[in-house]
């Protein structure tokens, strides 16, 4: 908790998480300076699939997603500008091996107030006649979920932060977190400028451990290359957004006539450098992801590939974000390790982190289960109802 009446908080990273945090801090009347080594939203947020769903196996993640949906559905009022939210409906589909897990997870979600329904294949076909359901035991259907535009979302958060007085400094790399005694006192940029602050928060995605390294503490983030591809779709074919645990794929409509489909690290590759990785799709990825898509939506069997790209997931040791204080350094916070799922939760993460930094406790959602200490002590988050995923999906739910 910071004590001065208008504390100065430095945010490192201008992706969706850093911009959400800057917005919430500035709106709460803090003085905020955000640094990005590139342009705002030039990191992994710009490459996001931006699927918005509530289904997680860990209740605090459901809460973050559910709270964030309020923002996405009312963006103009809650943030200002546009986030490009499109409500398509979403279904997570599973086979027999995951039936019991899905029942438990849906009950957990309902207990948190999420609007989710447990359907069988026939029920799902009534909502979405385009899908093949013969191997589906259950579908968890969310009528309010969909997708957004990750660049519009991040930029409107940045503009809203500026409107509340935040200073955003692009093309300025933070080289070092400055610590005196055991307290973070500011940062030094690569061009040797020093900025003092009452607190610093690192929201630097896969680059986060590099900034922590001089402090002898690290999350243990593993960079993983992930790809998404856009296929042409007849506008007459309307499918929902999906995570398909059987085929091991996520996909969603994109505008009127495209389908976006994605996988994580679907086959082993060496750890990418987030500053220098292969940004285009691999030829065998395109065939693989189209086959998996067509398994669920047969009419996409010969869909023409339009374009696609890769990005880098910042995978933490338990595939869950690390949100909170950096142990051993007062006034230093981190929000990173989102493990391929951090777009949809960014609004609530920004709100909760701002509360933690300014008031000492998060109220929007209790983010204490995501604390850094769990990593250091080895008490990693494990949920009993984690789904068995089709090979190569790339991350846990
Ligand atoms: C291909 C792909 C598909 C995805 N699909 C989904 C999805 O469907 N749904 C979902 O919820 N999530 C998805 N994600 C995950 C989601 O996009 C990320 O979790 C989220 O965008 C992370 O935001 P961030 O702000 O933490 O990181 P980033 O957007 O990477 O921002 C970090 C910023 O920190 C800056 N930075 C780094 N080091 C420094 C430094 N030393 N000084 C100054 N600035 C620095 C970088 O330049 C960068 O702009 C996907 C990710 C990828 C890659």
Condensed summary:
This protein has 397 residues and is α+β, with helices and mostly antiparallel strands.
Which helices and strands appear, and what pairs or packs with what?
Blueprint: E1 8-12, H1 16-27, E2 31-35, E3 51-52, H2 59-73, H3 75-78, E4 86-87, E5 90-94, H4 99-111, E6 117-119, H5 121-127, E7 138-142, E8 146-147, H6 150-163, E9 167-169, E10 174-180, E11 183-189, E12 194-196, E13 199-202, H7 208-212, E14 222-232, E15 241-244, E16 249-254, E17 258-263, H8 283-296, E18 305-315, E19 322-325, E20 332-336, H9 346-359, H10 373-377
The structure holds flavin-adenine dinucleotide (FAD).
Report what the structure shows.
- The mean pLDDT is 97.
- Strand 1 (8-12), helix 1 and strand 2 (31-35) form a beta-alpha-beta unit.
- The protein is of the alpha+beta class.
- The strands form four sheets. It has an eight-stranded mixed beta sheet with strand order 6-7-5-15-16-17-14-18, sandwiched between helices. Strands 9-2-1-13-20-19 form a six-stranded mixed beta sheet, covered by helices on one side.
- It has helices at 16-27, 59-73, 75-78, 99-111, 121-127, 150-163, 208-212, 283-296, 346-359, 373-377, and strands at residues 8-12, 31-35, 51-52, 86-87, 90-94, 117-119, 138-142, 146-147, 167-169, 174-180, 183-189, 194-196, 199-202, 222-232, 241-244, 249-254, 258-263, 305-315, 322-325, 332-336.
- The longest helix is centred in the first third of the chain and has 15 residues, at 59-73.
- It binds flavin-adenine dinucleotide.
- Flavin-adenine dinucleotide binds next to helix 1, strand 14 and strand 18.
């Amino acid at each position: 908790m910071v004590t001065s009446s208008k504390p100065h908080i430095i945010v490192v990273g201008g992706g969706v998480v850093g911009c959400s945090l800057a917005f919430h801090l500035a709106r709460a009347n803090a003085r905020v300076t955000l640094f990005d080594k590139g342009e705002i939203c030039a990191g992994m947020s710009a490459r996001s699939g931006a699927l918005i769903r509530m289904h997680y196996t860990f209740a605090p993640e459901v809460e973050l997603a559910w709270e964030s949906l309020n923002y996405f559905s009312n963006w103009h009022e809650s943030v200002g500008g546009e986030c490009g939210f499109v409500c398509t409906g979403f279904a997570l589909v599973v086979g027999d091996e995951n039936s019991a897990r899905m029942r438990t997870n849906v009950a957990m979600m309902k207990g948190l107030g999420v609007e989710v329904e447990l359907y069988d294949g026939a029920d799902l076909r009534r909502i979405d006649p385009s899908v093949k359901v013969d191997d589906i035991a259950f579908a968890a259907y969310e009528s309010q979920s969909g997708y957004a535009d990750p660049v519009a979302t991040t930029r409107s958060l940045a503009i809203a932060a500026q409107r509340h007085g935040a200073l955003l400094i692009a093309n300025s790399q933070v080289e070092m977190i400055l610590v005196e005694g055991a307290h973070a006192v500011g940062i030094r940029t690569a061009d040797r400028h020093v900025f003092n602050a009452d607190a610093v928060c690192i929201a630097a995605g896969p680059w986060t451990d590099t900034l922590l390294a001089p402090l002898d503490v690290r999350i243990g983030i593993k960079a993983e290359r992930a790809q998404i591809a856009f296929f042409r779709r007849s506008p007459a074919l309307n499918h929902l957004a999906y995570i398909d645990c059987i085929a091991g794929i996520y996909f969603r409509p994109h505008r009127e006539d495209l389908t976006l489909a994605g996988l994580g690290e679907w086959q082993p590759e060496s750890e990418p450098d987030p500053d220098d990785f292969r940004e285009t799709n691999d030829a065998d990825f395109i065939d693989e992801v189209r086959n998996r898509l067509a398994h669920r939506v047969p009419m996409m069997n010969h869909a023409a590939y339009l374009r696609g790209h890769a990005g880098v997931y910042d995978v933490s040791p338990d595939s869950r974000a690390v949100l909170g204080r950096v142990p051993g350094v007062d006034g230093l916070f981190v929000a990173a390790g989102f493990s391929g799922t951090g777009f949809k939760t960014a609004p609530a993460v920004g709100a909760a982190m701002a509360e933690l930094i300014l008031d000492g406790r998060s109220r929007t959602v209790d983010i204490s289960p995501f604390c850094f200490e769990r990593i250091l002590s080895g008490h990693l988050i494990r949920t009993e109802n984690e789904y068995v995923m089709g090979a190569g999906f790339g991350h846990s739910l």
